[in-house]
Amino acid sequence: MDEEPTRNLALELARVTEAAAMVAGRYMGRGNKEAGDQAAVDGMRYMLNTIDINGVVVIGEGVKDEAPMLYNGEELGTGKGPQMDIAVDPVDGTRLLAFGRANSISTVALSDRGTMLDPGPIVYMHKIAVGPIAKGHIDLEAPVPDNLKAVARVKGCDIDDLTIVVLDRPRHEELIASVRDCGARIRLITDGDVAGALMTAWPESGIDILMGIGGSPEGVLSACALKCMNGEIQAKLYPRNEDEEKQARKLGLPLDKVLMIDDLVRSEDIFFSVTGITDGELVDGIKYYGTGCRTHSLVMRNLTGTVREIIAMHSWDKLMELSGIKYDIDHPGV
Question: Which residues pair with 272 in a beta bridge?
Answer without folding.
Answer: 109, 300
